[in-house]
Amino acid sequence: MITSSHWDWFRHMWDKVVIATLAWFVTIYKFDAMRRDGQWRTGSVTFYFWAFSLFTSIGLTLMIWPVYLAFDRLAGLANLGWLVIYVSFALAIYFISAGCYIVLEQPKPRLMSWSLLLTVVVLTIVYAVGIVTLPEKADHTVPEVLAEVIFMETIYIYIAVLCAIPMFTFIRLARHEQIVSARLRWLVGFFASFFSFVVLLIKIVLTVLAFQNPATPALTILYPLITVGIVAVSIFITLAFLPNKLYQAAARPFEFLDKLLALYELKSLQNRLDPLCPPVVTGRLRLKDVLGDLDYHLYRALIAIWDAKKTLSGYVGLTHDLTQLPVTAIHSPGRALAEWDAQKLQQARLLHVSLQTVDDEQPFTALVKSYQRVSRTVRRKLGVKFSLGGTALDVAYQS
Predict the structure, then answer these.
(1) Which of 5, 63, 341, 345 is buried most deeply by CB count within 10 Å?
(2) CA distances from 303 to 149, 192, 267, 306 (A)
């Protein structure tokens, strides 16, 4: 029979129970992948990320008040669960930060290991001197003695500082990632570390304010924000460990929009090149046909841009490096005659310089991104707008 006391307990602890359950789900789910990793004993990315989820699960489980009390009774030391929670979280942030250095292929700073050791030592000393003699309580938000302030601020500052490592790592990887599904995973990791950082900053401020004035109105404002932040962190951490197939499915709409934007920008660049280098073949396609196979039309747009790029390079000798109008009319076999004036000469010079910045030996995806950047640069400097032209796209392809 569910009594009012059971209901009150569930109402105050439901978020901790759900979050701890999600954490253990991730830990158990990723254990097999970690075990199958042949390099986990020497410290692989898989092992470091799994160790992060393991110690996070331990810390979150002990935050559940009945589990906390049962652990203390079993150990025979008051508030030992509090110390284990903090040490678990310190180890968790250490492992994920160390894993980030492996992802970045950079050596882990020695200061990381020493800072972890120093944090654990300080926590242990403060626990033995002041925390173990205090009465047990479910809520550690408001410190009552100076020992609690030192105990709490030590772990908050340590984790907040180390949170910056995965936060900047994930956003850097997301910015340079070409595969949309992988970019989504890095963004999820960024938001998990970002919300962790925000929660810890709030806790650092709140601890000092609450110690100075336990009845401070800031508690009613900041404490719900901490709860929301912890829930957000748990959700994003769970999402970060989902299988690749789910990320690939979630990435399809973004990939479609990304390709559509790329085609728009490549066609914008192509339409600027056509008046200077008239295409061999022209035609019109319905928008529906273009959207049916974006990869094909991206490739054809690249071919047209390459063709114009090569033609512009051939014009360099006739125009004194595109600084003077040609004495004779510019003509290329198979092409219409291009009539240039001073304005077109200036545009040709800008387009030629911009196009030469692209290395055409890149993979297809990177090549598209490079010419997208060229299109944005040219559009910004020339300030000419490009329209899709209603329901049709103007296309100009080389045979």
Answers:
(1) 63
(2) 65, 41, 11, 5
The rounded distance, in Å, linking the Cα atoms of 333 and 346 is: 24
Of 198, 72, 89, whose CA–CA distance to 154 is shortest?
A: 89
Tracing tokens 């999402």 back to the chain, one arrives at 239
Residue 365's pLDDT is: 82
CA distances to 63, 192, 268, 350, 353 from 298, in Å: 53, 35, 12, 23, 22
Q: Which residue has the tokens 């242990």?
A: 124
Which residues are CB-contacts of 108 (< 8 A; sequence separation ≥ 6)? 98, 101, 102
Clarify whether residues 277 and 232 are in a common domain.
Answer: no
Within this chain, do residues 24 and 158 fall inside the same structural domain, yes or no?
yes
Quickly count helices (H) and strands (E) in the chain: 13, 2
H-state helical runs in 180-293: 180-212, 218-240, 244-273, 287-292
Vertex 321 angle, CA 320 and 322, to 5°:
90
Instruction: Look up the pTM and report it.
Output: 0.70
What is the rounded distance in angstroms from the CA atom of residue 341 to the CA atom of residue 372? 27
- Does residue 35 share a domain with residue 80? yes
| Residue 82, domain CATH | 1.20.1070
Cα distance between residue 225 and residue 362, in whole Å: 46
The SS3 assignment for 286 reads: strand
Asked if residue 230 lies in contact with residue 19, where contact means CB atoms within 8 angstroms, the answer is: yes
Residues 121-154 pLDDT 10s: 999 999 999 899 998 887 788 888 999 999 999 9
Taking only the tens place, the pLDDT of each residue in 162-179 is: 998 888 888 988 888 878
- Looking at the structure of the chain, the number of domains it has is 2
Task: Report phi then psi at 286, rounded to 5.
Answer: -70, 150
Output the pLDDT for position 277.
76
Q: CA-to-CA distance for 264 and 368, rounded, in angstroms?
A: 11
